[in-house]
Write a structure and sequence with these properties.
The chain is of the alpha/beta class. It has two domains: 206 residues, NAD(P)-binding Rossmann-like Domain (Rossmann fold); 92 residues, Alpha-Beta Complex (UDP-galactose 4-epimerase, domain 1). It is 40% helix and 18% strand. Strands 5-4-1-6-7-8-12 form a seven-stranded parallel sheet, with helices on both faces. Helix 5 links the parallel strand 7 and strand 8. The chain is globular. The structure holds nicotinamide-adenine-dinucleotide. The site of nicotinamide-adenine-dinucleotide (NAD) has 25 residues, from helix 1, strand 7 and strand 9.
């Protein structure tokens, strides 16, 4: 079974790749679990890092905005995880790039899946940024999508397209609306939410973290472990399980910037930790304030998708799964 991950050199792409290589079971076209015989990691840069040197892995650098390239990588894939994207603040800062990658790129993936004629399984990563405007205290599966950023608009359009291509029988799609995935490994990225991970990751590796929002700012977060569990679980469910919208809103837990700082301190142990520098950035604050402050997905609960117990668990996962790799990255960057 060939599996394609677009954005395969990114944070979630590599996490998922490792889980698949470790033997996570995917239901194949036969309707039974099938071994992953080929795992194609596609991104603008070649994927690298621990756990990816495996004969089943092929790493390819290219542009999702190039349709011919996308057609060639989708060829023969039973499953596509479409993660390639310009993230929130990046898409807000560069309007043209955001639409090229997040909209045209997604359309290319959908068209390439359709052209295979084999009805492949497609998992698309949407975002809480698809919501916006006057929101209830917690968004639900049925809260209307009224995005207030270009990124949110691009993710919403992606969801609508995926729904229609599924309805037409061109592919079997599910869009997963993710909260902020925390703690992220690697360097801070252009997501407006990147500070949530920085507040834990940087200090624990001895580096100062810059927090561009107020201590009271709320963020709904989910650990990468639970997120990858959700990708595999969602993949293996029939698309009908996700209702006519073919979407899955994942629950996260609500935390404030201050709680992130305090929890990081609780897990610091004997480490020499960096400090948190509070440095408000009006653009980041505005984007974050426009996002939902809470999530209540009955569908995710009914289908058995789990959240983290608390923020302590999230920080413990980071220390167990990623801190060593992060220390190496930090020392190379220094
Ligand atoms: N991590 C989160 O908190 C979060 C939250 C909501 C939604 N999402 C979505 O989940 C997906 C994965 O997120 P992530 O955290 O791994 O992001 P990431 O930035 O680490 O990975 C995205 C990857 O897409 C690649 N990419 C960008 N432009 C490309 C192009 N033109 N062609 C090919 N590849 C290109 C990037 O190089 C990057 O490696 C994204 O679609 C993101 O929008 C993530």
């Amino acid at each position: 079974m060939k599996v394609l991950i677009t954005g395969g050199a990114g944070f979630l792409g590599k996490k998922l790749a490792r889980r698949l290589l470790e033997g996570a079971e995917l239901i194949g076209p036969s309707g039974q679990p099938e071994p992953v015989s080929e795992l194609l990691l596609f991104d603008v840069v070649k994927a690298s890092g621990p756990g990816l040197d495996d004969p089943r892995v092929h790493k390819l650098a290219g542009d999702i905005a190039n349709f011919a390239t996308v057609q060639s990588i989708v060829q023969g894939a039973s499953t596509v995880f479409h993660f390639a994207a310009v993230v929130s603040a990046g898409a807000e800062a560069d309007f043209d790039l955001g639409y090229k990658v997040n909209l045209d790129g997604t359309r290319h993936v959908l068209e390439a899946c359709r052209a295979t004629g084999s009805n492949p399984r497609l998992i698309f990563t949407s975002s809480l940024a698809a919501y916006g405007g006057d929101l209830p205290p917690a968004v639900t599966d049925d809260t209307p999508l009224t995005p207030q950023t270009s990124y949110g608009a691009q993710k919403s359009i992606g969801e609508f397209l995926l729904r229609d291509y599924t309805r037409k029988g061109f592919l079997r799609g599910t869009a997963i609306r993710l909260p902020t995935i925390c703690v992220r490994t690697g360097m801070p990225n252009k997501a407006a939410s990147t500070w949530a991970s920085s507040m834990v990751r940087e200090p624990l590796t001895g580096v100062d973290a810059v927090c561009p929002v107020t201590p009271q700012t709320i963020m709904a977060v989910l650990s990468p472990r639970r997120t990858v569990d959700a990708f595999v679980r969602a993949h293996n469910l029939d698309t009908d399980a996700f209702g006519p919208g073919r979407t899955l809103l994942l629950n996260g837990i609500n935390v404030t910037a201050r709680q992130l700082e305090e929890t990081m301190h609780r897990h610091a142990g004997n480490r020499r930790i960096g400090k948190v520098v509070w440095q408000p950035d009006p653009m980041v604050q505005r984007i974050c304030d426009g996002w939902p402050q809470g999530i209540d997905s009955a569908r995710a609960r009914r289908l058995g998708f789990e959240t983290d117990r608390d923020l302590d668990e999230i920080v413990r996962y980071f220390i167990a799964d990623d801190l060593d790799e992060q220390m190496k990255l930090a020392s190379r960057a220094a």
